[in-house]
Amino acid sequence: MRLYNTLTRHEEPFAPSDGRTVRMYTCGLTVYARGHIGNFRTFTALDVLRRALEFEGYTVTQVRNYTDVDDRTIAESAKAGRPLREYTQQFVEAFERDAAALGLEPVEYAPRATDHIPAMASMIRALDGNGHTYVSDGSIYFKIATFPDYGRLARLDHAGIKSGARVDSDKYDKDDARDFVLWKAARPGEPSWEPGLPAGRPGWHIECSAMAEEMLGPLPIDIHGGGVDLIFPHHENEIAQAEGAARRPFSRFWVHVEHLMIEIEADEVRGSEKMSKSLGNVYNLEDVAAHGFRPSTLRYLYLNTHYRKQLKFSWSVMAQAEEAVKRLTDFLARVDALPPGEAHAETAGKLEDASKAFAEHIAADLNTAAALGVVFDLVRALNSAIDAGELRADDAAAVRGTFERFDRVLGILSLRCAEDAQPPVPVAEIERLIQERRAARSARNFAEADRIRKDLEARGIVLEDTPAGTRWKRK
Ligand code: AMP
Ligand code: ZN
Predict the structure, then answer these.
(1) Tell me, what's the pLDDT at 395?
(2) What share of the chain is helix, strand, coil (3-state, %, to 5)?
(3) How far is the CA of 381 from the centre of ligand 2 (A)?
(4) Digit-coded pLDDT (tens) for 83-136
(5) pLDDT over 90 (residue 22)
(6) For residue 200, how far is its CA from the centre of ligand 1 (angstroms)?
(7) Quick one: which ligand is closest to 241's CA?
(8) For atom 12 of ligand 1, which residue has the closest CA?
(9) Which of the residue ranges 150-164, 391-405, 412-426 has the most confident prediction, judged by mean pLDDT?
(10) Which CB contacts under 8 angstroms, 24+ apart, belong to 6-15?
């Protein structure tokens, strides 16, 4: 398999260092808000990478963390007047639900940063021992002048690096490359820890370096990934910390996913911008459902663009994606209803050619868009064969087997199947609404009872009143 490595800016052959198990760290969600569909573009692309590696026969050990302490989580939990752990817990849970809804495979480790403070402290102590740190106003900083490789990943121009100047915030621009904070001195009203360091809390960057080494070490790990916005400063700083402490390379491959973009609506400007919470232009899976789409459609949309290209999101491209998914499921329904008869001699060759082309595209830096092209070419060819009476029931198992193998990487059809098996509204919610409707009727509030019935009907659930009580069924 070939993967584009941001470190070298080249596509390179990839195999895990031990030839069997891929040790992969993927930066997870900062749990100060529910993840949006931009975040999930990155998480889904990295899920496809994981599936592709498994498809190649490797075992994958993946860490995908939760950043549950940083500038944003602290600010938002303070605003909400809730303890940090409690505040972030709701978004960890929402992430788990959304990840499952999008068909992301479970990962081996999903650590919360605050459960790994000792590992961060020990990395900071190792950095201190190697002469990479200094203290200012009680906070501990990484001195970038002590790390000659600083800026290699982001290709920073060393003339522009302001060594000696400091930056305290987690996020900042390339132009502001400075000594960055490893451990922030405790401030009144902020959560703090004392893991053998003065009371304080970790900077964002040290969290990932420490958890990656703790869970996937010894260094180097095989793959480190995230969205392109993480290249600088986050991943640059992760490298400086991990390598400064261990005196070994951190990760062999760096994989970065391009952004999901959204159209700018203002008349005077045309174009698109990154979907991001700070710009206030985000949609999440609830919005996707409110527009009548299911997560499998979004998953298809994600995969239909190569992960290193920007993806322009709109509801009309979602509608096109849904049509494409339907074309696939309609075809498979036809395969299930093939007339009896012996397998046709040409079918096996068609399936084999498509399987080979599919695998080649996936192995070429995860070209899911081209792989989907192969899938649809095959659908077209087999639809014509069905029309011509050249595909029979005895061909069905081989055809289904081929599409199931494609889906081990794509994860679209199995997701659609699971969605089809589920009522469009969660059962617990249907039952709660039935209770509410009964209460409304007892109170002779028929307008409210009717509203609940109509609301459920609009969402695909029909209520039937019987002498034994209210029953529900799918429309
Ligand atoms: P955060 O919660 O901000 O740390 O982001 C979680 C992940 O989502 C990171 O890998 C980001 O790079 C990624 N990400 C954030 N915004 C977008 C976007 N609009 N498109 C794709 N990935 C994104
Ligand atoms: Zn990270």
Answers:
(1) 97
(2) 50, 15, 30
(3) 44
(4) 999 999 999 999 999 999 999 999 999 999 999 999 999 999 999 999 999 999
(5) yes
(6) 27
(7) 2
(8) 227
(9) 391-405
(10) 6/153, 6/231, 6/254, 6/255, 6/256, 7/152, 7/153, 7/251, 7/253, 7/254, 11/364, 11/365, 12/253, 14/222, 14/223, 14/253
Please name every residue paired with 142 in a beta bridge, in sequence order, or none if there are none: 133, 180
Pocket test for ligand 1, best of 29, 39, 284 (most atoms within 8 A of CB): 39
Quote the pLDDT of residue 261.
97
Residue for token digits 């509203």?
A: 451
For the Cβ of 230 lying below 6 angstroms from any atom of ligand 1, the answer is yes
Q: Does ligand 1 lie within 6 Å of residue 31's CB atom?
A: no
Concatenated DSSP letters of 387-399: HTT---GGGHHHH
Residue 7: DSSP 8-state: T
C-alpha of residue 215 to centroid of ligand 2, in Å: 14
Helix boundaries (H) for 310-426: 315-336, 347-363, 368-387, 396-410, 413-421
User: Which residue, among 118, 106, 126, 97, has the nearest Cα to 54 in the 3D structure?
Assistant: 106
How does the average pLDDT of the chain come out, rounded? 96
Atom from ligand 1 closest to the CA of residue 29: 2
Q: Is the pLDDT score of 268 beyond 80? A: no
Cα 396 to middle of ligand 2, angstroms: 45
Closest to 42 measured CA to CA, from 305, 253, 239: 305
Lowest mean pLDDT among 284-288, 293-297, 301-305, 419-423: 419-423
Instruction: Give yes or no for a contact between 131 and 324, defined as CB atoms under 8 angstroms apart.
Output: no
pLDDT tens readout for residues 318-353: 999 999 999 999 999 999 999 999 999 999 999 999
Closest CA to 43 of 257, 217, 355, 331: 257
Say if ligand 1 is within 6 A of residue 73 CB: no
Residues 6+ apart with CB under 8 A from 355: 402, 405, 406
Check residue 220 and give its pLDDT.
98
User: Whose C-alpha lies nearest to ligand 1, atom 23?
Assistant: 39
User: Which ligand lies nearest to the CA atom of residue 25 in the structure?
Assistant: 2
27 CB under 6 A from ligand 1? Answer: yes
The pTM of the full predicted model, rounded to 2 decimals, is 0.92
How remote is the CA of residue 272 from the centroid of ligand 1, in Å? 16
| pLDDT given at position 424 | 81
Centre a 10 Å sphere on the Cβ of residue 98 and count the other Cβ atoms it contains: 24
What is the pLDDT, as a whole number, of residue 3? 98
User: Which residue has its alpha carbon closest to ligand 1 atom 11?
Assistant: 227
* Whole-number pLDDT of residue 267: 63
